[in-house]
Amino acid sequence: NAGVTQTPKFQVLKTGQSMTLQCAQDMNHNSMYWYRQDPGMGLRLIYYSASEGTTDKGEVPNGYNVSRLNKREFSLRLESAAPSQTSVYFCASTPLGGWNAFFGQGTRLTVV
Amino acid sequence: KQEVTQIPAALSVPEGENLVLNCSFTDSAIYNLQWFRQDPGKGLTSLLLIQSSQREQTSGRLNASLDKSSGRSTLYIAASQPGDSATYLCAAMDSNYQLIWGAGTKLIIKP
Fold first, then answer.
1. The pLDDT value given to residue B44
2. Which residue of A has its CA nearest to B6?
3. How far is CA B23 from CA A18, B27, B53, B66, B75, in A?
């Protein structure tokens, strides 16, 4: 079982460039999440999708958009990258009625 | 607004010692408290989940406790091993079913 798969693992962008981070889970989970992790801080929720067809803003949504493409896939898009978006991004999923979260290995993004 | 704090930020102990990691939260209205492990360059792995009605959970050498009234949770690791070296994060699930995270404690077990 692959669990939660994120691509790419590393990325360097120039300010103003756009990119999409991909996330897919093969556990038939209903809910999916995007977090960012910055040094010295806890993970912060960017967006989440409680179920296929729905998305909601989290704590730090500005500068990001998401798409829940289907039950398996949840992508995060940066339309115009800024240095403040340099971070490690994690995708996670939880099953219906369950609270144990499963995480991808993360995407380390640097914006220069 | 819920805030979760983990102190200390880093901890180094000799192999074989028993140790306690601390997690505090400001709002006692939580659904559960979860502990995760994060290895460098890797994702997070769930260790233990304590429901709000529970006082503790155990898995192998790990024991997590929860005291909602004092806003505290502890993760006890018995007979520590070098393989336990990692960053340990706690997260409280708030009334909106969202996880609020601490910044983590980086644990180093010295052989």
1. 93
2. A42
3. 37, 13, 18, 9, 8
User: CA of A35 to nearest chain B CA: how many angstroms apart?
Assistant: 10
Cis omega (within 30 of 0) on the bond before A61?
no
Looking at CA atoms only, how far is residue B69 from chain A in angstroms? 22
Pair A103, A91: CB distance under 8 Å? yes
Contacts 24+ apart (CB under 8 A), A76-79: A76/A20, A76/A21, A76/A23, A76/A34, A76/A46, A76/A47, A77/A18, A77/A19, A77/A20, A77/A21, A78/A13, A78/A18, A78/A19, A78/A20, A78/A21, A79/A18
Q: What is the pLDDT of residues B35-80, one digit of tens each?
A: 999 998 888 999 999 999 999 999 999 999 999 999 999 999 999 9
pLDDT digits (tens, 9 = 90+) for A68-105: 989 999 999 999 999 999 999 999 999 887 788 999 99
